[in-house]
Design brief:
323 residues; 8-stranded mixed beta sheet; 9 helices
């Protein structure tokens, strides 16, 4: 039995992780111990019935049955994560799921990699697009090449994010918001890459403005020759999470679910009706990760995706250095 510990009960922790954990427990496929939530903000205790609420990692760890069977969900702001991971590791926690990006600077990434090795941590970023059925289908097209080799990948992630960006300092650039998901997907589909261009735009309303939080664009050159463009508009009036794959002989368009109210994905292959199917990627990600953590000697899901996670984090740092 594994016991979840969710540190940070904001949008990601309470709105996404706790919901997915409830669905995972209801599925009956993974046995979970009592969920522990941790956040110093007292107003976040609302609507969290069934969760043991604490206000500090030290207090939370007193409710942990066994650190070795605890899975820590690190949902704090990006710049606060490394000290928290170090504290959890010092208390014997070895299984960690860290919200993207796992690091925001090259030094942070290097320190995290050393800590992972020294403490024997089994960790990965919550890059749940990699667990999506849609991603599995795209990966098959890339490897089997029914339309020839892939030449270009374009990923668009648009949504209005005015309220959160203006109210919170948890993210300093748009490169830390949606782009890490796209980077992980690009690495998963196309392999290692280098950033050749990166830019951010200002988020502006009639009364306020935030530099670098309006949107981001990143261009990659992959070692196998594929060119990737990642675009994220956080001032868009509409939501979109799409990927366009330009193969030698055809173009394929994929649409990931854009919100909690509908978990259907769509895949448009040339000359065919769209494939439309349910695709709860976050639940699938947690299921695979918890199965991995429950098997001590298995390299498993988290280990298999860590290289992608680390490469995506490195690319975030590269992109930020170009601003």
């Amino acid at each position: 039995m594994l016991q979840p510990l969710v540190v940070g009960l904001g949008r990601s922790g309470a709105g996404l992780h706790l919901k997915a954990l409830r669905n995972l427990a209801r599925s009956g496929q993974i046995r979970l111990g009592p969920v522990i939530g941790c956040d110093p903000r007292p107003d976040l205790a609302r609507d969290l019935s069934g969760v043991v609420l604490t206000t500090s990692p030290e207090q939370a760890l007193r409710h942990v049955h066994d650190p070795r069977t605890t899975v820590a969900h690190v949902c704090t702001p990006p710049h606060d994560r490394l000290p928290l991971v170090r504290e959890l590791a010092d208390h014997g926690v070895r299984h960690l799921l860290i919200e993207k990006p796992i690091a925001t600077t090259r030094d942070e990434l290097s320190d995290l990699l050393r800590l992972r090795e020294r403490a024997g941590l089994r960790l990965t970023a919550v890059t749940h697009w990699l667990a999506a059925e849609l991603t599995t289908r795209l990966r098959r097209l890339v490897t089997e090449q029914p339309y020839g080799p892939l030449r270009r990948l374009t990923i668009d992630q648009d949504k209005p994010r005015f309220t959160r960006s203006l109210a919170s300092g948890s993210h300093r650039t748009a490169l830390e918001v949606e782009i890490p998901h796209a980077l992980a997907l690009a690495v998963h589909l196309c392999g290692p890459a280098q950033v050749v261009r990166a830019s951010c735009t200002e988020l502006r309303t009639d009364h306020e403005a935030r530099p670098h939080l309006g949107g981001a664009r990143v261009e990659l050159h992959h070692t196998d020759g594929v060119r990737t463009t990642l675009r994220s508009d956080l001032t868009s009036p509409v939501r979109r999470r799409s990927a366009e794959l330009e193969f030698r002989d055809a173009t394929v368009v994929a649409h990931y679910p854009v919100g909690e109210d509908d978990d259907h994905a769509q895949l448009q292959l040339p000359g065919r009706a769209p494939q439309i199917f349910r695709d709860d990627a976050l639940l699938a990600f947690f299921h695979a990760a918890y199965q991995d953590f429950a098997t001590e000697d298995s390299p498993g899901f988290a280990h298999g995706h860590f290289a992608t996670t680390a490469e995506a984090a490195r690319l975030v740092c590269e992109a930020k250095a170009l601003l």
